[in-house]
Amino acid sequence: MAARGHVQDPNDRRLRPIYDYLDNGNNKMAIQQADKLLKKHKDLHCAKVLKAIGLQRTGKQDEAFTLAQEVATLEPTDDNSLQALTILYREMHRPELVTKLYEAAVKKVPLSEEYHSHLFMAYARVGEYKKMQQAGMALYKIVPKNPYYFWSVMSLVMQAISAQDEKLAQTMYLPLAERMVEKMVREEKIEAEAEVQLYFMILERLGKCVEALDVIRGPLGEKLTSELQSRENKCMMLYQRLQRWPECNSLAHKLLLKNPDDWQFYPCYFDSLFHLMDDSWTPPEEGEHCVEGSVHYTVAEVVRFVEERIKGEDSKESRPLRGPYLARLELIHRLREKGCPEESQLGEPLELMLQFFGKFGDKPCCITDLKLYLHLLSPDQHIQFINRLGEAVPLGEGGEEGFAFPEDTKALQRHLCVCQLSRALGLHHALDTDGKLRLITELKAHYHHGLQFGKTSLKTELQFSDMYCLMAAHVYIDLWKENGESNMVLQCLGLLQEGLSHSPSNAQFKLLLLLLYCHLGAFEPSVLIMLQNS
């Protein structure tokens, strides 16, 4: 409230001390100052409202409401009183009273742009979409500005979204909104990107994909500049809905040429290829393949395209991008599903995943990337794969316990990735009891060793080695489920609590602890963990 605008009346100077007291949280002094001012100026409505705000903030809600209603019944039109009442009603959580306030103000000052816009916003806060539409059009008639017109259009869209009768939305609200926008398009009055976005939203909800595509590809689409590739993303979505696979394919490979790491377009590219193959599509004898340009409609072309992207990454001096390497694995997966012999042209999955690990194994995302394609390995390759990954991890000399530890966080991340992939392949589960206990000892040793890399971490940051602790906990749970030994779950709880003491913000530790405590019927510790979160 301290940021007051230009002086609108002489009373601003008198009201200033009250505003200052309220802004500084000195509500009792604000009430006293308001009382002093009201003794001299009984008709100063704003002072009454400011006093009411002070009463509201000191817990005297009934007195505050009574005082506010005294002013509201007078239907004030001065800006100070209206703003103060708006603040008070907001603090009372009574936004519906603000609408009545500005309805009265608009009746008294029918040509006020400010009051009409405040009325529209008041309706928006209470979800009165029909009245929003009317207020928007009334405002546009007074001040013919585009935003006001499109406020009314958006209100119609909101009526359609909130309508219980979908038929009513499709036959009345949305068609009316469409006609209103088309009128502005014909008169060439579309100015802002938001107006084009709204037009697109209306056409999309009406299922008019062809018309929406024409808008995006036409002059209006040039206004879509706030988001990167907004126009192309919308075109891609519409091509897929319309099942225009040649255009989908062509646009995808054009966008991948610009940015080979933009993963969202690889699935579109591959999907369109197989749809084209299923449809036995062939390009026309003359001219372009489609409006977007050339189409890759054979497996050989797509394989060559992906390989070219990888060669481009391999030849870079800077660190390569993951997208093309993952795209190759994804293409192998899809070709294998379709039973296409061209799968072998892309290489052996085991070697390709080892290559991927060599390039990106020090990134936390490596595990989630490779986990998607582990099914490409045959069961007899699992142990070989993990062993070869382990050879690629730089570890120091063995310590007292016989375990070799990573010497920096990048090596630690690579080792973590190998451990997680090993568990994902089921190798942890296949161990006997002694093997699992040995594994737990190794994971705990790596966890404690890794804590040195996070000595300077904040409490809100996770330790680099937290995942070792979590995996060891899961192996304890495996043993508990297999053998039913309560000692295993108790040790698991102790380990997780230790992990939580080093990483108080680790949500996975907390969730697993909650699960175990609830399973054991120990609800008091569960409550304590939940209270730590609040």
From TrEMBL:
<dbReference type="Pfam" id="PF09797">
    <property type="entry name" value="NatB_MDM20"/>
</dbReference>
<dbReference type="InterPro" id="IPR019183">
    <property type="entry name" value="NAA25_NatB_aux_su"/>
</dbReference>
<dbReference type="InterPro" id="IPR011990">
    <property type="entry name" value="TPR-like_helical_dom_sf"/>
</dbReference>
<dbReference type="GO" id="GO:0031416">
    <property type="term" value="C:NatB complex"/>
</dbReference>
<keyword id="KW-0802">TPR repeat</keyword>
<keyword id="KW-0963">Cytoplasm</keyword>
<comment type="function">
    <text>Non-catalytic subunit of the NatB complex which catalyzes acetylation of the N-terminal methionine residues of peptides beginning with Met-Asp, Met-Glu, Met-Asn and Met-Gln. May play a role in normal cell-cycle progression.</text>
</comment>
<comment type="similarity">
    <text>Belongs to the MDM20/NAA25 family.</text>
</comment>
<protein>
    <recommendedName>
        <fullName>N-alpha-acetyltransferase 25, NatB auxiliary subunit</fullName>
    </recommendedName>
</protein>
<comment type="subunit">
    <text>Component of the N-terminal acetyltransferase B (NatB) complex which is composed of NAA20 and NAA25.</text>
</comment>
<keyword id="KW-0677">Repeat</keyword>
